[in-house]
Amino acid sequence: MLFYDFEVFAFDWLVVIMDTDQKKETVIVNNVEQLQKMYDDHINDIWVGFNNRHYDQYILKGILCGFDAKRINDFIIVKGNPGWKFSSMFNELPLINYDVMLNTDRGLKSFEGFMGNDIRESQVPFDIDRKLTDKEIQETIFYCRHDVQQTMKVFMKRIDEFNTMIYFIKHFKLPLAALSKTKAQLAAEILGGNRKGQMFDDEFDFPILDCLELKKYRHIADWYKAPENHDYEKSQKDVMVAGVPHTYSWGGGHGAIPQYHAKGDFLIIDVTAYYPSLQKKYHFGYRVMDNPENFEFIHDSNIEFKRKGDKKARLPFKIMDNAISGQMKQRSSALFDPMSNNSICVNGQLLLLDLVEHLEPVIEQLVQNNTDGIVVKLKDYDRDFDIIDGIVADWERRTGMRMDFETFFGEIFQKDVNNYMLIDRETGAMKVKGAYIKKLSDLDYDLPILNKALVDYMVNGIPIEQTVNQCDDLKEFQLVAKISNKYSCILHGEKPIKEKCIRVFASKNNADQGVKKVSIRTGKPEKISNSPEHCFIWNDEVNGVKVPSKLDKQWYIRMAQKRLNDFGVV
Fold this sequence. Notes:
alpha+beta
C-alpha cells in the first residue's frame, strides 16, 4: 500500500510516496522517468491519499501522459473542473486509488488541527512564478511529507471504511480497482444500478401506503398529494402534533419541545434501519436495480447482526446499508429514482405520525419526533408500558417495520430535535445526540471543553466554572477553523494570514483582535463562527501544552453557560 501526495507549482512538481509494506519513502522532484518506474513497479498496489480521487491521481496520470502538471492543477483547482475531463488518455492508465476523504470532510488540515498537530503552512507560495530554489524544494518536501503522514493517521482512524469496501469487493468478486469508487458508487454497482430513473417522469406519483391509519392528522398526508405542493421548496411549518410544533417537508418530518428539561420516565422508540426497511418491504427503488437480491442480502445481514449484538460483524453491512438509502435522490447515481425516494421519505414520516396519533392518548408528553423514531414521557411506567407496547406491536404488524425500545428512568436535557441527552439515574446509561454534547474523537475535536463542561453538569451536577477552571490542557480549549474556497483569506484583526486553517483561543489581552474570513464574492470580511472577540492563534503542535496565563477561561464559561441555557437549564 502506497500513501502519496503531490505538490504542483508553475515550473516544478514533486510527490512524496510512502510504501507501508516496504517501510520506505520515495521523493520524486520533476523526474518523469522515476515516476514512471514507480508507477510500473506498483501498478497492482493500492495508492492512498486525501482528496486524491479528485486531484492527485490526475496529476500522476497527467505527468505520465506527458501533460504539464500546472495545466492540470489549474484545470481542477482554478477552473473547478473534474479531473477526468482533462483527457481521455487518463482512462488508459489503470490505478487502484483509495481516497481517505469523505464528502462531509472540511479538509486534511482540519483533521490535523483536531489531532493537535502542527497546521502551519509552508512558506513557499503556490503562485510563485519561477523555478523553486533548492531550499524551497526542501521546505515543500517537508510539508508534503507531513501531509502524507497525517493522511496515514486519518486512514488508520477510519480503517472501518476501508475494510467495508474490501469486504464487499471480495464478497461480490469485484476487481480491486473498485476501491477507486465511492461507497455510493460501489453500492450502485453491487445492486446493478441501471440508470432507468433518468427515463421516468413520475416523480410525484408516489403512493400513500394502505396500511396508514390517520384520522386526526390526515390533513398532513393529504398535503403531499395536492399538486400545488409538488415543490421541494414548500413545507408544512408549525403544525401542532401532540402539542409539539412540527415541520413536514419533502425531506422528512420532525418536531421537538425546544429548551426542554424534565425528570420522569422516558421511552425512545426507534424503527430499526427505517428507510432501508421501507425500501425492502415495499420494493421502493427496485425498478432501478438489476440485482435487488444483493440489497436484500446487505440489509438482512445488517438486521441479523444487530439482533445478535455482533457489532463487529454488523459494521460493514450497516455502513453499506446506509450508503444505499440516499442514492435514489442523487441524479448522478445509477440508482437515481426520485419517485421511490419520495415514497420512502413521505411514507416514512407519515407512518411515524400514525404511531404518534395512536400513542397520544396514552403518553404524558411527546418529547420529540424525528425521521426514524420518537421520544415520549410516560405518565406511569408500570401502568402504561404494556398498553404502549401493544400499540407499537399493532403498528409493526400493519407496517412490516420493527421497533427498538430504550427505557430511561431519569432526566432529559433537550435543546432541539437534533440535540438532547437522556440519562437513566438508576443505571447510569445515557443517550446523547448533537454537536453540543456528543462524544468527541481525534477527528472531531472542536471546543472540547464546552462539551465536557455540559456533560459534567448534566450527568454529575458539576458546575460549569469548576470544569473549565480546573482544566490546564490548552488543546481542550481549541477552536479549529478552516475556510472554504468561497473565501480568499483569514484576517487576524486587519492582517491577512497565509493559513486557510487556524487554531484559535480566547485571549484576555484586548490587543489580540478577532478573526474574520473574507468573501471572494463580496470582498467583505465575516466573523468566523463561534470565534472570540479577542483571540490568539496557535498553529504549532498543541498536544501536551499547558494553558498560558492569557487564555480567557471566562469566555469559555460564558459560552458553556449559554449552551446550557439552550437546553432549558436556567
